[in-house]
Amino acid sequence: MRAAVLHETGQDKLEVLDDVEAVGFGPGKVRIRVRATGLCHSDISAMTGVLPQPAPFVPGHEGAGEIVDVGEGVTGLAPGGRVLVCWLPACGACPACKRGQTQLCLAGFMNAGTPNFKRPGGDVFGFAGTGTFAEEVVVDAGCAVPIPDDVPFDIAALIGCGVTTGLGAAINTADVQAGSSVAVIGCGGVGISAIQGARLKGAAQIVAVDPVTSRREAALHFGATEAVAPDALADAKQRLTEGEGFDYVFEVVGKSATARTAYETTRRGGTLVVVGAGAMDDVLQLNMFELFFDEKRIRPSMYGGGDVLRSYERAIALWRAGRIDLQSLITHRVPLAEINEALDQMRTGQALRTCIEL
Question: Can you tell me the distance from the alpha carbon of 308 to that of 81, in angstroms, rounded to the nearest whole number?
Answer without folding.
Answer: 20
